[in-house]
């Protein structure tokens, strides 16, 4: 999405310290299947002029945790390449918002 929007500088946050450290080259990625993902990520990162990758604790990243949970519940379909999910933040309880 960021590339399609023309983003050149990006901050990336991950909740897996292992994966973040593998992408940053601190740890080696030994699993052959995961190495394919690592190479793909490396090729994508070259398309940005600047990027940073940081680990954040899962406990403080409720949004990402919710999205990961939602994504794991949606059945994969080879014909549906794009699935859009509307996320709306409510600033007042639903019962107090006028119709």
From TrEMBL:
Protein name (Swiss-Prot/TrEMBL): RNase H type-1 domain-containing protein
Residues in RNase H type-1 domain copies: 1-68
Species the sequence originates in: Taxus chinensis (Chinese yew)
PANTHER family in alphabetical order: RIBONUCLEASE H (PTHR48475), RNASE H TYPE-1 DOMAIN-CONTAINING PROTEIN (PTHR48475:SF1)
Highest rank taxon of the organism: Eukaryota
Coiled coil: none
Single Gene Ontology MF annotation: nucleic acid binding
């Amino acid at each position: 999405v960021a590339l399609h929007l023309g983003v050149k500088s990006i901050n990336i946050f991950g909740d897996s310290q292992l994966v973040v450290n593998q992408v940053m080259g601190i740890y080696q990625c030994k699993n052959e299947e995961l190495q394919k993902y690592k190479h793909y990520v490396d090729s994508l990162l070259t398309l940005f002029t600047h990027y940073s990758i940081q680990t954040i604790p899962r406990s403080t990243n409720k949004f990402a945790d919710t999205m990961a949970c939602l994504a794991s519940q949606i059945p994969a379909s080879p014909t549906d390449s794009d699935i859009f999910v509307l996320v709306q933040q409510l600033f007042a309880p639903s019962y107090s918002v006028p119709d």
